[in-house]
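User: My advisor, Dr. K., asked me to get a structural model of this assembly before our group meeting. I'm new to this, so sorry if the format is off. These are the inputs:
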Amino acid sequence: MKVAGFDIGGANTDLAIIDYENDEIKEIKTDFEFLPMWCENDRLGSALIELIEKICPVDEIDAVGISMTAELADAFETKTEGVLDIATTCEKLFECPVGYISLGNVLSLAELVQNPLEVAAANWVATSQIIAEIEKDCIFIDTGSTTTDIIPIKDGKECAKGRTDFERSATGELVYTGTLRTNLTSFVDSVPLKGKEYRVASELFASSADVYTVLGLISEDDYSCNTSDGAGKSKEESARRIARVLCADLDILSKEDILEIADYIHKAQVKQIADALKEVSDREGLDKVVVTGLGKDILCAEAAKSLGLEVKSMGDYYSDDECTVAPAIGTAMMMKNYLK
Amino acid sequence: MKVAGFDIGGANTDLAIIDYENDEIKEIKTDFEFLPMWCENDRLGSALIELIEKICPVDEIDAVGISMTAELADAFETKTEGVLDIATTCEKLFECPVGYISLGNVLSLAELVQNPLEVAAANWVATSQIIAEIEKDCIFIDTGSTTTDIIPIKDGKECAKGRTDFERSATGELVYTGTLRTNLTSFVDSVPLKGKEYRVASELFASSADVYTVLGLISEDDYSCNTSDGAGKSKEESARRIARVLCADLDILSKEDILEIADYIHKAQVKQIADALKEVSDREGLDKVVVTGLGKDILCAEAAKSLGLEVKSMGDYYSDDECTVAPAIGTAMMMKNYLK
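Assistant: The format is fine. Below is the predicted structure of the whole assembly, which you can bring to the meeting.
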């Protein structure tokens, strides 16, 4: 039996297909695509089919689970409008059963339309399913391309104090910062260099992917989003974008300057995550952390270590590709259980 | 004699045409256009001609002065490339003399090519010409759509410690924050509401123009840049964009909530400017301020008052339209003097 799980984000859509044999996982296949929902949401239906077909013929799929965060994209006036638009697109695509991850259980479309907001931004619920199997009492930190979920788990069940994105942004359980797409000026006000403090330019001149590119912490393949200036993804092109954030260019700043700046920005983003993690850890009395997502090593683990917390990685149990699409895997698992 | 002054910014191009009679200013006419140089720099030449023709037949113009900041736009790999590209476009357009505002004097194209960086981001030098006539010893603050210049003037001469944008971002003399285009997440990390502290979403979901629209401090005409979601510029549409910054929508947040959030963000931007102003004021021992630009009342004057500094406004001597394009007027004045 093959179950597909989609995690439809604002910028990336992730897919996991789990092949079960006698209720045991035989194989997990994953893929993802950069699909900016604020401008290309019309392409969602065809993109989902293409993603599946790259891995497996779509008529071999027995069930499809959907989790989403893309309803916040500014193509939609309200989250409700976004959820209904995305869900109706998905429903039309598949002949097999389709279910939607909610803040409680998996919902059918008929149940979803009663309360669309229940499925808004619930993908972290799916991730908690996988993490709870690794550690029954912990906080998991999942830093993706754009956002970071910091979710407490007790006795194998997620117990986030905030439920919606709005609520979680006040409880430390959602930090809108990520490994690739984050505008550097959102978490850095100024950068120290040679004894001076340079205020940053509040444009989208560079994003976090540029910082981790020049530091050699991600590959060009990892850099799956667009660049802010439309140029390439090499170290030099990333360095040029970072220079612009200080109203400078590569005539003014040397390679060593850029590395020093990038290192400072990296530490600032780790601290941003650590501040929220501390809030959750202190409140919940949890001191074990399980890290996942593309930023599991360069951001999550660094943040946890800076607070002296014990760190486990989903990477010790799953492949890097699987960690990157953790919510999609969790979504497929929840869909499988829903079918029982 | 008619002299045109252009201030070619990254986002806006401003024009002032000064009609002189016996070396006295008879009339000033102004206009501006939103011209995003990061994607429409090919349109610069035709835009400059159209702007002039809206006010005055181009063959009546006796000289053209150019100041620029657009060379930082990420359509250009380096500032040098940007300056040369813009200057050669300008030079081809006009048969009358053309001069370029530099950090020192006005330069001809032949002089400019010797050291293109001398004309990069020198428009504040032009503004200082006008302000020095209002107050010989002061700090002027010019908050435009995108950036804020904070420039000390002593004995009628600007004496900024930093010369380039890069240097000025470390001396308090350039704060990359403005009345319209500034991403709210660049200067706000979290927003308090009903006893909770909400972290912001690091997208470009809303800009400063949305805040001043909902607060009724700017008109729809003032809102001359694009909206972040491509929707309209009404109060409700601006409110919707601001809600998204808290991962919320107008189902979740009331009109009163949005006003409270906007008021907080307004104060945060005033403080951002006040911090830099204090740095310059303390260092230079100047306690008089002359404010100008679109944000002269809602941002500059508020920042100066918060520090107990004495405030004069360019608006007491010039019209609001003239204040909005102050660097363009200064550019025309410097070009006139250069011809002597």
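One thing worth pointing out at the meeting: Chain B touches chain A through 52 residues (CB under 8 Å).

User: Perfect, thanks a lot.
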